[in-house]
Design goal:
About 35% of the residues lie in helices and about 20% in strands. It is built from seven helices and eleven strands. It has a seven-stranded mixed beta sheet with strand order 1-2-4-3-6-7-5, sandwiched between helices. A four-stranded antiparallel beta sheet has the order 8-9-11-10, with helices on one face. The longest helix is centred in the C-terminal third of the chain and has 18 residues.
Length: about 250
Amino acid sequence: MKSSLCDVSDVTPVVHFPAAGVIRVVSPALFADPDGDLCRRFLGRTLLAREIETAEIESSASPRVDLRFNPARFGRKRVLRRVADLLSSVDATPGDALVVAPASTARDHQGVVRYRRCANRVTGWRVDRANLSSLRLSNPVLYRKSALTQAIERELMSVLGVRRYDTDSRKCRVDIEYDPRHVSVVQLIEILDGALAGAEHPETLDKLDRNLTLCAVSLPLAAAAQFAVPALLPVSGALFFYTTLPSFKRA
């Protein structure tokens, strides 16, 4: 049976253009719940448009989505027409839309859900580097949340075809070396989304480890104090003592 996605016509969205390359759609009914059926259908159809690069959802005071495109390549009218055609096509069926990952897999530490089209999915992952057998992906949801990178590592540990992996919560990235004969990029992104969806997301960020930074500062300061400015010796000594305290405590 033919149906139109724009059952959303009842929610009366308001469209703004806050900056070049940004189409802002404001609608509490659509975007208050990023995991709601209407929002997922909207994203699954809208990001079929190759002109749209990202969709950023804020569901706080004024629920909205910012659809971002490259204004140097595409005119605003063309992008609007393309999005409108996708949303209102009488031939639209649920199978035409992209699969949308849960909002928890794309929500950054500021509460913004940042989606993009990647490997025929609407996901929070971005491919930073890819070749035949290695992949670097990034996702702001990982920022200073080592519990999430550990969940990803546990998941990748048992995936056939994954040779090596490395995660970094501070840089929000995952590096994977894999055998394309056994696992594809699409499957890897599905696995990563599944790991994030099933993990418990910490409410607070990991504490920053400042010891390495202080050690890096103390070394040139000590050299300068010894050879150039002897008056800095007490300062460098105090800084050195402070950076060694954690080691003494653990000992």
